[in-house]
């Protein structure tokens, strides 16, 4: 059973050759990864005297049990091994070379070729010309590494091409072997190998396998033909697991055709597949465009028997973007019938999501992701769980499901501090929690909460802030605890119950006893700045009662100026007071006249 999923898989990985790069003996980690980086930069090689391009996928760790699925999908097969070693004296050389052979045995049945890069050994041994060993004086003096890798890849291509031609040629009279996945082998013991059903199964599986080899060898159109023929054969005998693989092969080849830039998210990471093909791809394969048929005679020179030309004529050339997704759904439904194919099913879901993200079909992508969440694998380690939830989060982010993305990132954060981990990673936990904030509409700047209505779910935001406080405490950073608690009290005050207010203030009191709060900006190691939190909502005013002012501040009544001859006192010709006094005099005179 394949147990370790590769969450970074993309549809275009099906056209790659898998090469493992590993150290032998004690190699300084920094030196190993410096050479590994240079090796893995040679990921694309133009085949000499041909328009074909080879793509290489490098790994520095690959589980041998995954390698056993190499016949099912050839991009899972380790075909190249490059080993790196330190060797300073001729005395160490025989033992070093022996270790190289032991390492080769691990992937022995699938390797096309291997190389050993020796650093530090000089003298007679290093001067002997060899194809499988390269000697360099030091890690700084190795200019030819890239050229050596290109030559190595050319040697892989020669073996790949011979296998492709050998298996694509119909040798009449020879029995086609039955390719199997590891868990099937016991099921086929004692089967009637002469029955028509069994022969069709063998033919269908081999056709699918040849399709894989064509795709890896840079022959996209040929691979499509083989996949279509394999689908027909395998469907007729209800060979569902391999039918799923043939359909997925069709999807992969069609994705490579439609999206030469790749689906992995690194724009421009892959070149177009060859002149005429990529130029036509945009015009011929718009959604809903007429399917193009293969020229029946086009492939006979590539090892396909001319008798099959009628089938080739009927085969559709390439799936439309809509059909790609339908075929992915069908393939995944077949994988789902086998509990031992959980990793294959999970990876197919992830590949389909990456394609749907490019097609901007978010709702359909979320259905594939939902399926991926519920696929049961073996008991995963905590590190694998963290990786799984982080990738799910990244994929949800890519399709615009920001809150769902935050949900899975928070689970990944909690996993970093799981009780079963001997040394919980509180720093990693805190960092991941910070990354979830935008998904929950939460900012750590108090000013963002003074503008209008509250955004997001307050209950979830409070939980998240409590978790940030706890992670800060476990990291041994009381200043961070004070800042997050202050922020919680200031911004979430309207949503806290009386008991919660009491709890938060008591916690804040105990933390500030050790580390007083400040109005300084706190800068985190990754550059994020946490602004200070002024308590503008506290204390809360419940009632207002007017108190007498002190005697010195009380107002005193000014004596009235009425009745005084203000005309001589005032600098104004006309003033309200003068007008008022004159008005009174006039009214008195009028009163007297009336009485008389």
TrEMBL record:
Family per similarity comment: Belongs to the NIBP family.
Domain Trs120/TRAPPC9 N-terminal: 187-260
Protein name as it appears in the record: TPPC9 protein
Family matches, as InterPro entries: TPR_TRAPPC9_Trs120, Trs120_TRAPPC9, Trs120_TRAPPC9_N
Residue ranges of every copy of the Trs120/TRAPPC9 TPR region domain listed in the record: 363-510
Annotated Gene Ontology cellular component terms: trans-Golgi network
Transmembrane segments: none
Cellular compartment(s): Golgi apparatus
Keywords, ordered alphabetically: Golgi apparatus
Pfam families: TPR_TRAPPC9-Trs120, TRAPPC9-Trs120
Domain of life of the organism encoding this protein: Eukaryota
Biological source species: Scytalopus superciliaris
């Amino acid at each position: 059973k394949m147990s370790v999923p590769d969450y970074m898989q993309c549809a275009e990985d099906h056209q790659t050759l898998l090469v493992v790069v590993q150290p032998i003996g004690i190699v300084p980690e920094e030196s190993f990864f410096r050479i590994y980086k240079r090796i893995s930069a040679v990921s694309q090689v133009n085949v000499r005297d041909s328009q074909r391009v080879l793509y290489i996928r490098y790994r520095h760790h690959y589980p041998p049990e995954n390698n056993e699925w190499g016949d099912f999908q050839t991009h899972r097969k380790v075909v190249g091994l490059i080993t790196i070693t330190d060797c300073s004296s001729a005395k160490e050389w025989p033992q070093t070379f022996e270790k190289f052979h032991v390492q080769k045995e691990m992937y022995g049945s699938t390797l096309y070729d291997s190389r050993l890069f020796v650093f530090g050994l000089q003298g007679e041994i290093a001067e002997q010309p060899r194809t499988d060993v390269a000697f360099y004086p030091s890690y700084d003096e190795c200019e030819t590494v890239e050229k050596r890798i290109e030559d190595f890849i050319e040697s892989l291509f020669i073996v790949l091409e011979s296998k492709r031609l050998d298996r694509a040629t119909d040798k009449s009279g020879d029995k086609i072997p039955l390719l199997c996945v590891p868990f099937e082998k016991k099921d086929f013991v004692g089967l009637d190998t002469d029955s028509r059903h069994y022969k069709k199964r063998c033919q269908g599986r081999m056709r699918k396998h040849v399709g894989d080899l064509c795709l890896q060898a840079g022959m996209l159109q040929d691979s499509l033909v083989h996949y279509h023929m394999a689908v027909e054969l395998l469907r007729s005998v209800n060979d569902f697991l391999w039918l799923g693989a043939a359909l997925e092969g069709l999807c992969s080849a069609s994705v490579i055709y439609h999206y030469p830039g790749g689906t992995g998210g690194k724009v421009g990471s892959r070149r177009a597949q060859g002149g005429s093909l990529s130029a036509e791809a945009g015009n011929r394969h718009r959604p809903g465009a007429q399917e193009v048929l293969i020229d029946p005679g086009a492939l006979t020179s590539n090892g396909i028997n001319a008798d099959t030309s009628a089938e080739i004529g009927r085969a559709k050339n390439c799936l439309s973007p809509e059909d790609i997704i339908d075929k992915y759904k069908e393939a995944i439904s077949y994988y789902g019938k086998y509990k031992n194919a959980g990793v294959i099913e999970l990876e197919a879901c992830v590949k389909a999501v990456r394609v749907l993200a490019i097609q901007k079909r978010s709702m359909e992508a979320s259905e594939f992701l939902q399926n991926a969440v519920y696929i049961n694998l073996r008991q995963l380690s905590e590190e694998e769980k963290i990786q799984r939830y982080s990738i799910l989060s990244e994929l949800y982010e890519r399709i615009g499901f920001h809150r769902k993305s935050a949900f899975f990132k928070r689970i990944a954060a909690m996993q970093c501090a799981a009780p079963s981990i001997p040394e919980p990673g509180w720093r990693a936990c805190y960092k991941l929690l910070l990354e979830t904030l935008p998904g929950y509409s939460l900012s750590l700047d108090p000013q963002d909460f003074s503008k209008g209505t509250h955004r997001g779910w307050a209950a979830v935001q409070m939980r998240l802030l409590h978790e940030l406080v706890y992670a800060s405490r476990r990291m041994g950073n009381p200043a961070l605890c004070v800042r997050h608690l202050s922020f919680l009290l200031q911004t979430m005050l309207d949503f806290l119950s009386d008991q919660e207010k009491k709890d938060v203030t008591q916690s804040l009191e105990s933390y500030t006893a050790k580390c007083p709060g400040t109005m300084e900006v706190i800068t985190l190691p990754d550059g994020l700045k946490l602004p200070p939190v002024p308590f503008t909502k506290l204390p809360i005013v419940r009632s207002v009662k007017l108190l007498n002012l002190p005697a010195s501040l009380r107002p005193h009544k000014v004596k009235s100026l009425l009745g005084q001859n203000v005309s001589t006192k005032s600098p104004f010709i006309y003033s309200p007071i003068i007008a008022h006094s004159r008005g009174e005099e006039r009214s008195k005179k009028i009163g007297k006249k009336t009485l008389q």
